[in-house]
Design goal:
27% of the residues lie in helices and 24% in strands. It is built from 16 helices and 24 strands. An 8-stranded mixed sheet has the order 6-9-10-24-23-22-19-12, with helices on both faces. A 5-stranded mixed β-barrel has the order 1-2-3-5-4. It has a 5-stranded antiparallel sheet with strand order 13-14-17-15-16. Strand 15 and strand 16 form a beta hairpin.
């Protein structure tokens, strides 16, 4: 569409437009002054076009002095570029436009950060002037990618028979999960709404209402600290729920959606089209984490029982094992020629993580089997044979050992697995490796209080026949809960829901909630489930994290249009901000600050 501001956008002009008079509008991206000639790159949302003006033109001096990022309208004539000046890096690189007239549409002050380059810049400046930061090529393309991904997902969900509904933003506070953002009610003095941490209860109520498949690109609000893969304050997720389904039905939908999305928006290879399923127990033992990066070939092995052998004289570990610690190891293939510094650096790194270090040895064979390294002398050839049989290690391989209580051991071996793989360059960055983590325990014990708590989602369905579940052994109860993980990043948790009120009361009582508390906190849910609820389940993959993976970014800020800083502050809009006494009075609120 042409109007008084443009006949074409800055990505449109080609050789077929040569000799045409055109009007383009945009931002001055770059200027190159060659004395007699001035080259101007004009940028809009779509791309860049090069303009040229010579010294004889009356507009030359004004354009020469003009600040970058000034918004201008230019009229001119399209010409061919000379062969040696063709720029194949931009779509309009075969032509340029001779400037005949121009008009300033928006003036620009001195810039606080460069727009024409993607160089690293201080976070506080980037966020304070986010509207300028978003003009930069890389992040501008990331935000366009985000829009395209959301549109594609929405279309895919429609094709899969899902209906899109919006759930309330002002709701009630929940006792589970992260901290709520609270909103005071003017009409109900002393009472508060909460912004939804997720539309969890509402999407279940939609199923109870008789709708079969729901989805929403849902905003979620949690008063949490920032991380590189999590925005403080708010984020978006693809929220979905289905009725009359089992776990596998959810998996089929999500796998199809993610495979299609990642193939559409990335050239990276998918390691699996059918995602492997790993039990929570196996994930914690083999990878030390329920967010395993399957691009990493290293597997953690348990050697606890082997350390009970008399012919292993590594007394430090043996004493720890007798007091309840576990021993696990990581085998690195064919690392016999690695310098001593490689092994010592990993041991030193482990100590920096708060562990006691990582013991290590390399398996050798001259006339007979032996172990080379600081702790090698503690292992007989028979014990080495046993270790090789248990771990799949071979002569020339090295073994890193860690010994501690289970939680600490899982933490250090998970970190070590990633560290060693990176040091050995074992991870293929051109691959997406998805997997499901399944069979989460319904409950866990708080190590400090010894109290039984929900380990995941309190609204989940326990596995097994209901009348055969042993509630006296709550730590043995598994749930139909699952996580979707890609390259070590958790995209989402989901579950088959508990749609039976009596069973819900029973499960909550195990976690210490009385019936009256459940009725008070989850009145809408319990009441609805009492009027004929279908079996149902769902999941909610994080939109921000999906786009972060597709854009190959390490920080979620790079795919979020207007993020907050690490202290949950919007530096551009000065939020959170003070409010007037009048506003507080209307809300029946007075402020009392801690000393």
């Amino acid at each position: 569409m042409s109007n008084k501001y443009r006949t074409h956008n800055c990505d449109e002009l080609r050789k077929k437009h040569v000799d045409k008079n055109v009007i383009l509008s945009g931002w001055i991206n770059k200027k190159r002054d060659h004395g007699n000639l001035l080259f101007i790159d004009l940028r809009d949302n779509y791309g860049i076009t090069q303009f040229i003006i010579d010294k004889e033109n009356s507009n030359f001096k004004e354009l020469e002095k003009m600040q970058l990022e000034t918004v201008i309208k230019i009229e001119g004539k399209v010409i061919n570029r000379s062969k040696e000046t063709i720029n194949n890096e931009i779509k309009t690189g075969e032509v340029e436009v001779i400037i005949e007239n121009f008009k300033v549409l928006g003036t620009c002050k001195e810039l606080p950060l460069p727009v024409f380059s993607d160089q690293e810049y201080a976070e506080d400046i980037r966020l304070k002037y986010r509207f300028l930061d978003l003009r930069r090529k890389k992040i501008h393309e990331n935000i366009i990618l985000r829009s395209n991904v959301i549109s594609f997902i929405r279309n895919e969900m429609n094709n899969l028979g899902f209906l899109e509904f919006q759930t309330p933003i002002l709701t009630s506070s929940s006792p589970e999960g992260a901290r709520d953002f609270l909103v005071p009610s003017r009409l109900n003095p002393g009472k508060f709404y909460a912004l939804p941490q997720a539309p969890q209860q509402f999407k279940q109520l939609i199923m109870v209402s008789g709708f079969d498949k729901y989805f929403q690109i849902a905003p979620c609000f949690r008063d949490e600290d920032a991380r590189s893969d999590r925005s403080p304050g708010e984020f978006y997720q693809l929220d979905l729920e289905m009725s009359f389904v089992e776990q596998e039905d959810i998996f089929k939908v999500v796998e199809r959606l993610l495979v299609n999305t990642f193939k559409k928006f990335s050239n990276k290879k998918l390691l699996f089209d059918n995602f492997p399923k790993i039990t929570y127990k196996d994930a914690m033992q083999k990878f030390g984490s329920d967010k395993p990066d399957l691009r990493n070939p290293l597997i953690i092995k348990d050697l606890t029982n082997i350390f009970l052998r008399d012919d292993i004289t590594f007394e430090i570990f043996k004493k720890l094992v007798k007091s309840g610690s576990l021993v696990r190891c990581i085998v690195t293939k064919n690392t016999k020629d690695k310098p001593r510094s490689f092994f010592d650096n990993i041991d030193k790194w482990a100590k920096e993580q708060g562990a006691s270090g990582l013991a290590y040895f390399t398996i050798e064979k001259d006339k007979e089997l032996s172990a080379k390294g600081p702790v090698g002398k503690f292992f007989s050839k028979e014990s080495l044979n046993e270790i090789m049989k248990s771990t799949g290690a071979e002569v020339g391989d090295s073994i890193f050992l860690a010994c501690s209580k289970q939680k600490e051991l899982e933490k250090i071996t998970s970190l070590a697995r990633d560290k060693i793989a990176k040091d050995l360059d074992l991870i293929d960055d051109d691959v997406f490796a998805f997997c499901w983590v399944v069979d989460y325990p319904m409950f866990e014990k708080d190590l400090l209080t010894n109290k039984i708590e929900f380990s995941h989602n309190p609204f989940s369905m326990p596995q097994g026949e209901i009348d055969q579940i042993n509630f006296d052994k709550p730590l043995d109860i598994l749930a139909y809960q699952y996580d979707i993980v890609c390259n070590g990043i958790e995209l989402s948790s989901g579950a088959i829901r508990n749609h039976m009120p009596d069973l819900m009361y029973k499960l909550f009582s195990v976690a210490g909630y009385k019936k009256e508390v459940v009725d008070e906190k989850f009145s809408g849910m319990i009441n609805a489930l009492s009027y004929g609820a279908p079996p149902h389940g769902g999941i909610a993959p994080g939109i921000d994290r999906i786009v972060m993976l597709l854009a190959n970014e390490k920080n979620i800020r790079e795919v979020t249009m207007f993020p907050m800083n690490q202290n949950a502050q919007d530096l551009m809009m000065n939020a959170p901000s003070d409010v007037s006494d009048k506003q507080l009075k209307e809300l029946n609120i007075s402020l009392k600050f801690k000393e």
